[in-house]
Design a protein that fits this description.
alpha+beta, Muramoyl-pentapeptide Carboxypeptidase, domain 2, 4 strands, single chain, 4-stranded antiparallel sheet
Length: 202
């Protein structure tokens, strides 16, 4: 019961609650109950999570023209582009990759503005970071945001998509913080994780 009570408290802290009655197919209720038991939570908490996810993100996906793509396809696609370039006469593949990631990050940055305006109705650094956090939760990318004692914000993104995507995320974050926050950001990365450290006022 302790975990269920904790989950209920999380929902209550998120905002005021109201009671409402729905009629659902028995098979749907059974599937949801099975999933709730698997997650060791209550059916009420699970349904709240599903509806919150729909309200915060999924209802906008079609309007933004987004399609679900498996991670393996994203990581393999970029690797194949690099391989194809090397096999077809590009000698300096490192420079080619850097230019490609800069170009892709510019495209993503432009797309981001329309998406944030659609979801948040306001475009600034805070709303952009909120939308990115929602997106990562939906697609299953682990992320963490904490503030050091000196006030530095640290963002950790564990994408697990490989070195090429680490470079893309680095260029994308630089565009976000330097254009919207007007601040320099220190970014380090491994093959599957990107870490950004920056002083900002949110």
């Amino acid at each position: 019961m302790k975990k269920e009570d904790d989950n209920e408290n999380i929902i209550n802290k998120a905002g005021k609650t109201r009671s409402i009655t729905f009629r659902l197919e028995s098979s749907i209720i059974e599937e949801l109950q099975t999933e709730a038991e698997y997650r060791e939570t209550s059916l009420n908490v699970l349904i709240n999570q599903i509806l919150r996810r729909y309200s915060n993100w999924e209802r906008y996906e079609n309007k933004m023209g987004m399609l679900p793509v498996p991670k393996i396809m994203l990581s393999s696609m970029m690797d194949e582009v690099m391989k194809f370039g090397k096999e077809n006469g590009i000698e300096d593949i490192s420079t080619f990759r850097n230019l490609l990631m800069k170009e892709l990050s510019q495209i993503a940055f432009i797309f981001l503005k329309d998406s944030v305006l659609l979801i948040k109705k306001n475009y600034n650094l805070l709303t952009v970071l909120e939308v990115l956090e929602q997106y990562m939760k939906v697609v299953g990318i682990n992320s963490d945001h904490r503030i050091d004692e000196d006030g530095k914000h640290i963002y950790v993104i564990q994408h697990k998509l490989g070195e090429n995507w680490s470079l893309f995320i680095k260029e994308f974050l630089i565009l976000i913080f330097e254009n919207l926050g007007k601040v320099k950001v220190d970014i380090s990365s491994t093959q599957n994780t990107t870490v950004a450290k920056v002083f900002i006022n949110l």
